[in-house]
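Below sits the subject:

***
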Amino acid sequence: MNPVHNFFFGVYPYLCLAVFLLGSLIRFDRDQYTWKSDSSQLLRAGQLRWGSNLFHIGILFLLFGHTVGLLTPHALYEPFISAQHKQLLAIVSGGTAGLICFVGLTLLLHRRLSDPRIRLTSRRTDIAILVILWLQLCLGLITLPFSFADRADAHTMLVLADWAQRIVTFRPDASGLLGVEWPFRLHIVLGMTIFLLFPFSRLVHVWSGFASVAYVFRPYQLVRSRRLNLPSHGQSARKL
């Protein structure tokens, strides 16, 4: 195998995951005041409402869909749905969510670049991460025609899932991706790069979103009332 190919699909995933996890932990421990989304809603709210809602709806669906679709073993879903139908479902649902997310992110990027006040208050990393996410969405949409052409045997989907499952079980094998079309491979590399940059950007606030879900399922807090010994009639009050 090409050493570059072997690095990006055999070594680079672990490098990105290590930085993603350790970097997030270190930033939370040392720079908690930077652990926020840096909202610019006060400067201009109209376009933000549409852009943010569309972006978050689309990106959450894509994140969940990619995680379940790639990491679910074929043997688990085969009794219920064929690989071909699963790929067609992924094309339709993922394509719809991708378009929704693309429109929302385009609105957010246009808002941040076109408004002078927002551009002046934006960090370079804010703009850079939006551009990288926008390019990643473009690559994801480009893969749709290739996936549709391959729907007859779902070969590409099975190869990508096998590679991802080998990565998370520490059995890396990059040889299967050699025959995969270039948009898929570039989409994977840029996706892993986003995980690499995650701890150094405003994306860390995603962890807070997961924490808020856990907060909903917290146990009830028990509050006990404290009885005060009030003075009886005719007695002087004592200081409590």
Observations:
- The mean pLDDT is 85.
- The chain has one domain: 3-32+44-207.
- The chain has nine helices and no strands.
- The CA atoms of residues 18 and 196 lie 8 Å apart.
